[in-house]
User: Fold these one by one.
Assistant:
Number 1:
Amino acid sequence: MTQRVAFVTGAMGGLGTAICQELAKAGYKVVATYRSDAKRDKWLEEQVAAGFKDFIPVKGDVGDLASVQAMVAEAEQKAGPIDILVNNAGITRDKMFAKMEREQWDDVLNTSLTSLCNVTKQVSAKMAERGWGRIINISSINGVKGQAGQTNYSAAKAGMIGFTKALAQELAAKNVTVNAIAPGYVATEMVTAIREDVLKTIVDSVPMKRLAKPEEIGFAVVYLADELSGFITGATLNINGGLYYQ
């Protein structure tokens, strides 16, 4: 069987890295997208040191349609048709809504939600034509329950879930599944750098009394990408240690 190609946006962040690694371990050819040249070389060196030598880096801005079109074309030229799309790119610009600036709203919605349209549009029809595909959208617990200070982020992540449910219905007959994952608090470098007392409060709020390991989210992506997950579509997989149930 031909090696399937996975395309991961926001690949060089903490969660994106774990997703790329778990997909590679499962035997997929992984295209890792990035936006900043400053991060690229160091990240690739770290991956080689960790035993991952075959990631295919492709630069682009998921919030810019022309950039995405060029990025996907480059990925297809280097790796082949995209079988698995992981929409993982996202940013935060937190502020209470009364004080939130329009730019902070637009930046988050553009990167975390409009990007789904920009990227998915380039691959979903081709997946449907080939009769196989997996689209996996990384949402958030805060897109399910909301979070004060994150009206922009919560709106974007909730929008991802609605997008997932609607597109799943459009592509179901074509053997292309569309699912979302809504992680809770994950032990990425960004989260573990939070002030110790604040981090303890977060951990204490989780029934399992710990943060998720990034590889646990990566494994969930592999699960939804698998051949045997072909009857799961339109679903949101909540991975939050029991913190919140939909």
Note: DSSP finds nine helices and seven strands in the chain.
Number 2:
Amino acid sequence: MARQIEAEQAKVQQRSVRKSATSSQSATAANSKIADVSTDVGNVKTQVSATQAELQKTIADLKSVTGDLGVQSGLVATNGKELAALKRLGDRNYIDIKLGKTKQPQRFGDITLLLKDANVKKNGTRLR
């Protein structure tokens, strides 16, 4: 009987040793998986913040473009002083042309113009 009890106690001890070894292995595996997930989450946070910064820059650029289009009348010169101010900004190239009424089109840079009719009294012209 005593031998059987000792044998049973030895078996119980072996089982508890196996369980603790298995538990420690499971804990180690779980900790390594948690560390991997934490690293991945950190990388995703970095990427999200970079993407948000890029998105904010893009939104600002788009607002600037809409602002330019919305205030386009401010960028169109109606007299010599305004034209000189726009030339000083240097955003665009301006070419002074003198277009008279002729039968042949006149070339100015990349375009060709022909003055068909001019009404000086009404400041009206028709170009082709």
Note: The two ends are 119 Å apart (CA to CA).
Number 3:
Amino acid sequence: MYAVRNIRLCTKDCLCLYVCPTGATDTETGQIDRSKCISGCRLCVDACPSHAISLVPESYPPQQEKKQTVLAAMRKRSASKSAQEQAFALLEQTAPNEPARRLAKAMRCSCRLMAEDLLRESGYMLPQSENVQTLLKSELENIKDNDFPRDAAKRLLELLKQ
């Protein structure tokens, strides 16, 4: 296991810098140097007040098989949550007041999270699944957005080939 940081959660408290015995953490770039990280040390994970650092395994287990009826039900539920998300997005834009907009936004975000969880459970968002690899290849070919992490996507695809 090695440490990774979720940049969106990081509050730059920098306690990880002080507890890391190898200097693997870098708050300027948000990266944790995997080659310096001591496997399973957890000092940075336990010290982080915003819970932005977690441990991930060196390799992921193979995807578990699911029955087609279960997968179909999960996909149907995910599609329903996606439709609800779109409805709440429209409501968020047209709500008559601020409390209604905030509620619509919260519901939109909740629907998004549930749809993502359902897709992840059905195997669509596991890095080692064919679905994710196909999606990443498609994104690399088609996405022109500068915010898309192209290098990270290429590196992940390379690692999954091994």
Note: Residues 65 and 123 are 9 Å apart (CA to CA).
